[in-house]
Each structure stands twice: as structure tokens, then as C-alpha cells.
Amino acid sequence: MSAIPAPLLSATVTLLIAFFYFYTGFRVGNLRAKHNIKAPACSGHPEFDRAYRVQPNTLEQMGIVLPLLWVATFYPIPWAWIAPLAAFVWLCARIVYMRGYMADPDKRITGAMMTGVCDLILLLLAIGGIALAWHGALA
Amino acid sequence: MSAIPAPLLSATVTLLIAFFYFYTGFRVGNLRAKHNIKAPACSGHPEFDRAYRVQPNTLEQMGIVLPLLWVATFYPIPWAWIAPLAAFVWLCARIVYMRGYMADPDKRITGAMMTGVCDLILLLLAIGGIALAWHGALA
Amino acid sequence: MSAIPAPLLSATVTLLIAFFYFYTGFRVGNLRAKHNIKAPACSGHPEFDRAYRVQPNTLEQMGIVLPLLWVATFYPIPWAWIAPLAAFVWLCARIVYMRGYMADPDKRITGAMMTGVCDLILLLLAIGGIALAWHGALA
Q1: What are A66-80's pLDDT values in tens digits?
Q2: What is the mean pLDDT of chain C?
């Protein structure tokens, strides 16, 4: 794994995340048609309502993960591949979240907690990388 | 066009996209005042409701397009300018979408379909660029 | 300040923004539990409703600020540190906005106006940087 440059790993995970997010939006559109919910209405059937929460929730999470991933990629700690790995685990957590939420809103908790742990790991990695870079710039 | 570096083209399109998005938010604020809809309420008049859907829908789309554009810019296929061109067409599609949606929610479909086609092109470009980069890294 | 490279300043502000946004989401989750608002419902208590508007509003703003900040960082005007400084002031404006909004929705205006001014400054900086880069590429 260390033979592959970390930016390529991060770009690959970013691509997978964008694809997953594209898919969550595609499902909302499909369920809008299936349950005949006309825009601009954004609710009307429990299945649609849940899918409609998964999509923006994923976008909200991307607003945390993508900036932290790329800060940690450009200002890495010595093991630069940990950041894209954490983002990949985050993506898996989002899939667990989506499957749980669609089955039952109460079952979204496992995925949401996994998501939160990955957020925190990426936050610590980005803080570590930025701290190292400031240390280097001020030395 | 090939004389201009692809990252500069992508940065220019990113600037235009950010400006367009800024404008969609500005319109929501204006219509909130015009129809006297007090925050935190987010609906109350059909014109406001439609504008209020255009803005987050644009943000949602940006969550797909900007990551794919920049993955495809940093890991380009040989014709690197196709990615910023696709993102520029996407921006035009968003303007078609906005104008259609404001006239009649059913008329948003043309712009939405053009948007989806641009999303798919950017996805394929990013997949192609990443595949080439992995091929190079593993060779 | 000019001794620190502008990309490191921008990355540091990006990290702070991602952390702030993480915090706005954390508060929504906490208030959801406090007021016992079960997903997928997204309203039910004024305090929750306001917190629930602050979070996506922050994300919406990030969709403007982060692309402009990074365009202005990679294509800087001579004083490259102005862009991360404007983004840092923007972050302070978001904190003013959040505190105002939670106290009373009408009190969000000060923070919202400060936010808008920072948006405009970043837009002008990005336009200036891109114009300089096009000038250089075409010269």
C-alpha cells in the first residue's frame, strides 16, 4: 500500500464517495417517481422520507470528511495512507447507515456512530499534519 | 484551448460555479424578504418554495461535480480539458434547470437530465484518470 | 505572517471550518436527543429548529467559501495571505451568526451580513487571481 502515493489513494476514495453520493440522489429521484411525490414537495411516503434524509445527511458528512481528508493528504503525518483508509472506512460506515436507516430510522445509529468515529480520526490526522507543517514552517 | 493548463480551466469553472451558487442563495434571501417569510420557516409561497429547492439542489449537485472535476483534473486522461468543459456544460444545465423550475416545477426535467449526463461524463473521466494513475503507479 | 506559505494558512482555516461545521452537526444531534425528536422528523421544538437551520446554512456557505478560498490560494494575487484571512473572518462571522440565531432568528442578520461581505471579498480575490493567471497563460 505504501507504494501507491497517498494523494492517489485519497483521490480514489473521493471518487468512490462522489459515486456513492450520486447513487443516494438517484434513489431519491427514483422513489419520488415510485411514490408519485411531485416537486417541490419533499415528503409524502415513509420510504421516500427516509431516502430523502440519507442523501443530505451524506452531503453534510461530506462537508466534514472531504476537507479533512485533503488537508490530511496535503499535510500528512508520516503514515500518509491512514487518512484515505479512514475515509474509506467512513464510506463503508455510510453504507451501513443507509441500509440501517432504510430498514428502520432507529437502526441508523450503528452507521452514524461509525461515521462519527471516522470523522474524529480524520480530524486528529488533519490536526497532526497541520501541526507538523506549522512546526516545519516556523523552525 | 490546449495552451491553457487544465487546472486553470477547472479553477475558472469552479469560480463560476461558486458564483452561480452564491446567486441562488441571494435569490432565496430576496424572496424571503419579498414574501415576508420569517426564519426559521422555509416555505410559505410557491415562488419562494421553488427558489428554496433550487439552492440546495445546486449544492447537492456541487457535491458530485466539484470532487469529480478535481479528481479528473489532478489525474487527467490525455485530453485534460474535457473535464472542465463538462463542468462548464453542467453549469449551463443548472441555469436551464433553475429557469425551468422557477417557471414550473415540471419544467425542471430538461435541466435535470442535462445535469445528470454531465455528472456521468465527469464520473467516467474521473474513473479513466484514476485507472490510468493506478496503472502507472503499479507498473 | 508572510513567512508561512499561503496554502498552509488556507489548510489551517479549512481545518477550523470543518471542525466548526462538525460542531454544528453535533449540536443538532444533541438537541434531537434533548427534545426527543425522532428521525426522520426535522422539526418539533424552536431550539432544535434553529440549530437545524444553522447547520445546513453553514454547509451552504461552505459551498461558496471553500471553492473560492482554494481557487484564490492556488491562483493568488500578490498578497496571498488575504484569502485565508478572509476565510478566517468568515468563520468568526459564522460563530456570530450561530450565537445570534440561537438567541433569536432576527438576530442572525449581523452574522449573515458579515458572512456575505467575506463571501464577496473571497469572490473578488478569486476573480483577481484567475484573471492574473489567464493573463500569464495568454501572454
Answers
A1: 999 999 999 999 999
A2: 90
Q: Across all residues in chain B, what is the average pLDDT? A: 90
pLDDT at A29: 83
pTM: 0.91
Write the CB contacts of C103 (distance below 8 Å, at least 6 apart in sequence).
none
Contact call for B15 and C126, based on CB within 8 A: yes
Q: How far apart are CA B109 and CA B93, in angstroms?
A: 11
**Partners for C (CB, 8 Å, 3+ pairs)?**
A, B
Residue of C nearest to B14 (CA): C67
Least confident window among B25-29, B68-72, C95-99:
B25-29
Q: What is the DSSP code string of chain B? A: -TTS-HHHHHHHHHHHHHHHHHHHHHHHHHHHHHTT--TT---SSHHHHHHHHHHHHHHHHHHHHHHHHHHHHHS--SSTTHHHHHHHHHHHHHHHHHHHHHH-GGGGHHHHHHHHHHHHHHHHHHHHHHHHHHHHHH-
Q: Which of A58, A106, A127, A130 should one mutate to test binding to chain C, selecting the residue with the greatest count of C CBs within 10 A? A: A130
What value of ipTM does the predicted structure carry?
Answer: 0.88
Task: Please indicate whether, in this complex, the C-beta atoms of A126 and C15 are within 8 angstroms of each other.
Answer: yes
**Structural domains for chain C:** 6-134 (1.20.120.550)
